[in-house]
Amino acid sequence: MTTARPGATDTSADVAREIAGEQDHVDRVYRELEKASARAAEVEKDGIARGRSSRSGEVRDEELTGLFERDALVYAAAKRRSAIEKQYEGLVFGRLDLGDVETPAAERDIRHIGRLGVRDDDYEPLVVDWRAPAAAAFYRATPVDPMGVLRRRVLRCKGATVVGVEDDLMVPEAPDDIVVVGDGALIAALTRTRGRQMRDIVATIQRHQDEAIRAPSRGVTEITGGPGTGKTVVALHRAAYLLYSERRRFESGGILVVGPSAAYTAYIERVLPSLGEDSVALRALGDLVDGVTASRLDQPEVAAVKGSLRIRRLLSRAASRPPAGAPTHLRAFINGHAVRLDESVLHRIRRQVLRSAQHNLATHQAREQLAQAAWASVRQGERDEFFDAFDSSRDVDEFMRTWWRQVDPREVLLGLADTDLVYGLARGVLDQEESAALALSMREALELGTWSVSDIALIDDLSGKLGPVQEPESEERGFYDIDEYDDLASYGVNDVRAGVDRGVATARTQSVVTPLDPRERLLHGRIERASSSAHVLVDEAQDLSPMQWRVLARRGRNASWTVVGDAAQASWSDREEARAAQTEAYGSHEVRGFHMDTNYRNAREIFAYARDVILPLVPDADIPEAVRETGVDPLDRVVDAPPTSAVEQAVEELLDDVEGSIAVITPRRWADRLAHLDGTGEGRVQVIDPLSTKGLEWDATVVLDPDAIVEESPGGVRVLYVVLTRAAHRMTVLRPG
Ligand SMILES: Nc1ncnc2c1ncn2[C@@H]1O[C@H](COP(=O)(O)OP(=O)(O)OP(=O)(O)O)[C@@H](O)[C@H]1O
């Protein structure tokens, strides 16, 4: 916050008096809230009771309408009550004194800002929701453009108690009665200890951040900037803002937030609920396809093969092969005639059918084409009789069961464990070395029983090619769960299907017992079809492979987007191909950009160290300005190898220096020797690999063996740059000699 503090008067008596004044208001707000909460509970109880009595006997149309209204009422009341309960902590965090210097005190407009709007019995606003237009000046006013604000105040609360206030004056000279206290809320917030989870910044959002948060919902909003510039936190506040400004659209259509890893989603998962929003789906890249999950990373060369769009041709070829175990010819006795269709005819039929349909939805077409070919090979007797007999032939039923059975995309992918098969499928697409590496990685999956993160995009691509696996026909299928809906969904009409799927979810509830056999584990569970979202928010976008962009494109066909990234932190090598896939995912949407240039995370000394590492190698890196100083430079030590005791010592020192979280960031080669440190220091210490630190931060870090980090990482020095920009207050770099 740009602070103008002429005439600041903050004796402890002033501070105590100001805090007491704010406490009065906050007390009033909580009293109102209690009343509102009780009212909401009453509506809920009343509504439910009414519903119960109405449901006895026949339900007439007008009663049905009443039930819908009741449901809506109860839902709204329950939601409001839950919001009130969640927002209890730090509910009121700001105040604006509006007017000009001449305005008498009694005529000034006082506006309190909070996580939620609250009104009194006369419908007078006691707190304005931070996302409402009336709160915009809280974030946008500056001494240059005060927007009618005399003083902006940030309230620090513990529960319902005001413990501090921090003021910024927006006019050169404060009117006599206006007291200005505190050192500025932003620096206070940035100096605080980091916990295991990201916090919201609702009380200290900066003007340039607010502009990105409140940007129009349509189209694509790209947020760029160097490390620690608040891109992630801004994007999350934007999601909360979108839900506030167009709740109906975004709550029903859904907002999908995608980040690099499960560690990242765990790190950010509290931010939106703390802003009162929990209807957002947070997904790591390994969890994008419903029904499969992955956290294992492939070796960089393999990830490069699986991430590039080249692989799609290979997958297409694999998906159009007959399923494993399919017969090579058809022999049947139809209407008194011997029918024999050989391999080349069967291949031709397969090719023809797959030209216009997805395998799993084309059983009917395949059988029809088969009948045509069979008739062409016979051409004797009555045509219609022949077709009827073909239709009801048990021989043909038996043949179809294996020749055109339902195929799970994962099964096709596992087929690539056969190196010779991959050599054949990869002709003109991959070289021998790449093909062998791909096959080897599939054998690895079969050994471990786990998918890698890059496999998920391949499964999704194959899923799109093959179509959804159809359940065998069953008597129990619900009225709405009919095949036409399956077909519609394959043409992108997902909304119809979404309701159907919800309806049958319990019928298909999967077993929670995970099979022991690795292959069965890989194929366990059912792959759900991709559901589309109204808004897709992508963090660390610089790391997405082209194939991963396609996964998102399928989920964001009609979505607006918020995309967050910093090219200098990229771990994906071919930026151009990825950028093209990214642009394609956006479709024809217009793109607007916001650039963040202030680093709020790293102490200036730490960021200077990181900057000196990246700039010589990536001269066009986007370098922000760090706002905070600690006066302590990072330590850089050469230590004996193996470095275990040196790391232990560094951790000991940092446990004394900082109050909060500490990360030991280690390349693979030392990881086993340091595992024992994970969770020490009463849970404050975490041992983590370089790539998994993306998007995260700690109070202090020990960065072990920077040269090995560069060597082992696909993004080389860019990944080291990520690692060197994770610490807020202290950093120790250790170089095994
Ligand atoms: N206005 C603000 N007030 C208080 N804290 C802020 C503000 N803006 C950013 N921060 C803090 O700065 C830190 C960095 O923010 P964030 O992780 O969003 O940055 P980023 O640009 O996504 O970083 P990176 O690209 O390095 O992952 C977080 O602790 C965040 O809470």
Automatic annotation (TrEMBL):
InterPro entries in alphabetical order: DNA_helicase_UvrD/REP, P-loop_NTPase, UvrD-like_ATP-bd
Protein name: Helicase
PANTHER family attached to this UniProt entry: DNA 3'-5' HELICASE (PTHR11070:SF45), UVRD / RECB / PCRA DNA HELICASE FAMILY MEMBER (PTHR11070)
Keyword Nucleotide-binding belongs to the record: yes
Positions contributing to ATP binding: 225-232
A GO cellular component entry from the record: cytosol
Matching SUPFAM superfamilies: P-loop containing nucleoside triphosphate hydrolases
Domain UvrD-like helicase ATP-binding: 204-603
Top-level taxon of the source organism: Bacteria
Organism of derivation: Knoellia aerolata DSM 18566
Location of the region described as Disordered in the Swiss-Prot/TrEMBL record: 1-20, 42-61
